[in-house]
Amino acid sequence: MQSSVTIPLPSLAETMRLGRHLGQAARPGDIFTLSGDLGAGKTTLTQAIGQGLEVPADCYITSPTFSLLHEYHGRLPIFHMDLYRLGSSAEIHELGFEEYLYGNGLTIIEWPDRLQELMPHSRLDIRLTLVDETARLAILTAYGDMQPRLASLLPQ
Ligand SMILES: Nc1ncnc2c1ncn2[C@@H]1O[C@H](COP(=O)(O)OP(=O)(O)OP(=O)(O)O)[C@@H](O)[C@H]1O
Ligand SMILES: [Mg+2]
Hints:
There is one protein chain. This protein is α/β, with parallel strands linked by helices. Helix 1 (12-25) packs across helix 2. The protein has helices at 12-25, 42-52, 89-95, 98-101, 150-153, and strands at 2-9, 31-36, 69-73, 77-82, 106-110, 123-130, 136-143. The protein has one domain (2-153): P-loop containing nucleotide triphosphate hydrolases (Rossmann fold). Adenosine-5'-triphosphate is lined by residues 9, 11-12, 15, 36, 38-44, 63, 110, 134-136.
């Protein structure tokens, strides 16, 4: 079972508004998976989620491309993964990342397809598509326990 909603993001401001709302609505143990081409806005959306979770403004969220994982602290701990360089899902196991997937923070995962069979069942998947230089399209799909919460995760 899954539910999807498509949200036009005509400007960076709209992406930031969506992200802040997602951050405000996030609960301990939530998992957001972010897909989309290079430059689609996955890290930008993560910065806005951090704002919504009251991560201090002087704490700048950057892509953990080489380290694979960055941790931030706001209303909840945020574990931000960028799995672009992950070799195999076995590496997730070796790195001990599974404990983050089932911990008490918000886990945000860029390039989640790398998880393969370790993909968590309950999650909010956000797929960003480039429309033009300033516009994006977001398709949000809620799986498992996230499904009944989808409406409350969206800005009005
Ligand atoms: N509507 C929009 N939403 C999100 N980002 C936008 C929008 N319009 C312009 N941008 C710009 O697009 C860029 C998105 O870069 P970002 O690093 O967030 O992408 P990414 O998906 O994380 O890429 P990568 O796969 O390389 O990590 C930023 O420079 C951002 O300012
Ligand atoms: Mg990124």
